[in-house]
Each structure stands twice: as C-alpha cells, then as structure tokens.
From TrEMBL:
PANTHER family: HEME-BINDING PROTEIN-RELATED (PTHR11220), SOUL HEME-BINDING FAMILY PROTEIN (PTHR11220:SF50). InterPro entries: DUF2358 (IPR018790), Reg_factor_effector_dom_sf (IPR011256), SOUL_heme-bd (IPR006917). Signal peptide: none annotated. It comes from the Eukaryota. Belongs to the HEBP family. This is SOUL heme-binding protein. It holds the Pfam family DUF2358. SUPFAM superfamilies: Probable bacterial effector-binding domain (SSF55136).
Length: 381
C-alpha cells in the first residue's frame, strides 16, 4: 500500500468523579460564546451552556461524566463505519461546529458524517477522552481521508481536539466543537481552515508499494508528527543526502545479490540518513518488507552492505515536492528543526531524506519527498 497506518492504541485515563448539578432556568436554550485557551495556542471560541442563571429548584440531575467518557471511548471509533455513532446520546438540537462546517441538529451532524463517508472515505483514530470541565469532555483524534472524486485521490489529514458540552438537564451532549492543530483561526467560518483543505489537494505521486508502518499523531501547519513501528533496512555508505551513491549496491541485495539469491519485493521510500550536525556522514537505505524477520534474512554478499533493525520512534516530518537537491534538503531540514524548537520539542541530531519516486519516471512537480527528524520525546497531552 502507498501509505500504511498503524491502528492507534486507546489508553483510558483514571476515572473522574460524576457531577451533580441543579437544573437550568427556562433560559436553557440560550448559549453564549466563551474564550478557551490551551497552552501556547491562540484564543479559541467555544459554544457553552450558560450556567449563570440556575433555578433554585431542589431537583437535581446527576450527570455521570465518567460514564460519558467511557461511552465516547466505545462509540466514537464507529464514527465512519456501518454501525455509526449512537444518536440518542445527543440532544436533537446539538450544536456542531468546526472551522468550515456548521450544523444545529443531530440530523444535520449525521448528514455531514454521511457526506464525508461518500466523498472522502475517512479513517478516524481516537487517542484519548477526558473530562475537562463540570459539563465538558475533550477528545483528541486523528482523521485521515482520501478525496475520491479527484483522479489522484489526494490524502487529507486533520488532527485536533473536540470539546463536547453536556446538557445538565438531559445528560446528553448539546455541543460539539472541533479545533484543528493545523490552523490558528478555528472560528466558523475560517478562511484559513478552507485554505488548509485546498492545499492538501495538491498532487503527490506515491507508488503503490509497501512502506514502513506509522501513526499520524499530529499535523501542524508545517509538519506532521508520526510514530513509526520498528522496521529493517539494508544499507551502505552514501555520499550526500540527495545523492544516489550506494543505491545500486542495496538494490542489488533485494534483487538477488545475497547469500541465498533470494529476490525481495521493493518498498518505498528510499532513505538517506545523516547522523551528524553537518549532515555529512550519510548512509543510503532500502526498507525491507514488514513480513521479513531479521534472523531469516539472507546475508549480503559484500562487506560494505549491512542489515539493521530500526527501532522506530517519534519523528517529525516535512513533506515537499520537486527535485530534492542537497541545498533544498538542507534548507528543509533547517526549517523543520527551527519549527520544532519553536514549538518546544526536542529534535535529535541528524535527519533522514525519504524519496518515494523513481526520478526517471516521475514528473518533478508530483514527486513526494520528506525530511524526517527523530524526536527525543513527544506527548499528545
């Protein structure tokens, strides 16, 4: 497959206590805008229930927030499958907002889901669910989609959080507000959000070959954060990040120049890796198929070729098209590293260049190239 995704493991936090509230006054239907901030991110908007005018009535409604958290862990993974989400968990007039979409009923929200299923065949991955307020639950997710109406079927990736408001009278969700990691202005209608969609429609040609498995944890305006599973490479010394020196040697290994003359299927991308600050000590690598066990692989015929298991980990990735000359690759590495430091992340020394295409058979403007930098640590909290 051109892009391989790992299924995401869902970790449940320590249960939170249930909340008991008095009923709201007859002005329950009125909602107000509130400012919400998170870390260094700019101010966000959110629809919330107005809890200012509470009725003095002695009647109370017990809202079991822990139960709702557990419910979302079970229900949201069905967002785009045949089972679908449970509409009975939402008020009929639930308010749904994301940067470019607005609905004011559960019927409208479900229609939006159905439309996405037809046009984009989305995959939804839930990272975590937690209580973030007396009547508020926040989820973090990744959504990967393919726009099937375009011939090249571009991949669109969105990551972010959803803030879900709870109606204290009914115990159901009364608002659902999405915030994308890739934009600053998450208010509806966001031209920045619309542009974020359009710029992902560009053509990247990715061969239909196996790739290393990874999870997309976060996508910002300029880079992705991925969690790579372990993989095995055959490698030898190269001359520079954008160079091809050594490629014929490692390609020869998979084409049968090995101790058992076994022919191994080609994968993508071809990696060149630099492990020093100057990006001068380079190796060139081909990833071996995931089904291969290290102990069962044939030995290389030449001493300059070696097999190595890459333990995987968290990598930041900057994607770009065009011919990846050495100057361009070095500039992309600087831009990515600068962005990571600015965002408070800790990039490791060195980088990898991933080249997905045969340069002799691919138009330059459709080439898919990526610069990867391993991160010392990363958290989605």
């Amino acid at each position: 497959m051109a892009t391989t995704q790992l299924s995401l493991q869902i970790l449940r936090p320590i249960p939170t206590a249930s909340v008991t509230s008095r009923r709201l006054s007859k002005n329950f239907g009125t909602r107000n805008l509130a400012v919400r901030t998170s870390g260094s991110r700019s101010s966000k908007w959110a629809l919330r229930l107005s809890l200012v005018e509470r009725s003095p009535s002695a009647e109370t409604t017990a809202v079991d927030v822990k139960q709702l958290v557990d419910f979302l862990y079970d229900d949201l993974p069905h967002l785009f499958d045949d089972q679908g989400i449970d509409r009975t968990a939402y008020d009929e007039l639930v308010k749904f907002r994301d940067p470019i979409t607005k609905h004011d009923s559960i019927s409208g929200y479900l229609f939006n889901i159905a439309l996405l299923k037809v046009l984009f065949r989305p995959q939804f991955f839930l990272h975590w669910v937690k209580q973030t307020g007396p009547y508020e639950i926040t989820t973090r997710w990744t959504m990967v989609m393919k726009f099937t109406l375009l011939p090249w079927k571009p991949q669109l990736i969105f990551t972010g959080t959803s803030v879900m408001g709870i109606n204290p009278d009914t115990g159901k969700f009364c608002s659902h507000l999405d915030f994308w990691d890739s934009i600053k202005n998450n208010e509806y209608f966001s031209l920045e959000g619309l542009w974020d969609v359009f710029k992902q429609l560009r053509i990247y040609k990715t061969p239909d070959l196996e790739t290393p498995k990874y999870q997309i944890l976060k996508r910002t305006a300029s880079y992705e954060v991925r969690k790579y599973a372990p993989f095995i490479v055959v490698e030898t010394r190269g001359d520079k990040l954008s160079g091809s020196t050594g490629f014929n040697d490692v390609a020869g290994y998979i084409f049968g120049k090995n101790s058992t003359k076994e022919k191994i299927p080609m994968t993508t991308p071809v990696f060149t890796q630099a492990n020093d600050v100057e990006l001068s000590k380079v190796s060139i690598q081909i990833v071996l198929p995931l089904e291969k066990e290290f102990s069962s692989l044939p030995d290389p015929n030449e001493e300059k070729i070696s097999l190595r298991k890459v333990e995987g980990g968290i990598a930041a990735v900057l994607k770009f098209s065009g011919k990846p000359t050495d100057d361009i690759v070095r500039e992309k590495e600087k831009v990515l590293r600068s962005s990571l430091v600015k965002d408070g992340l800790k990039p490791m020394i060195g980088c990898l260049l991933a080249r997905y295409n045969d340069p002799g058979r691919t138009r330059t403007f459709t080439m898919r190239n990526e610069v990867l930098i391993w991160l010392e640590e990363f958290s989605l909290e």
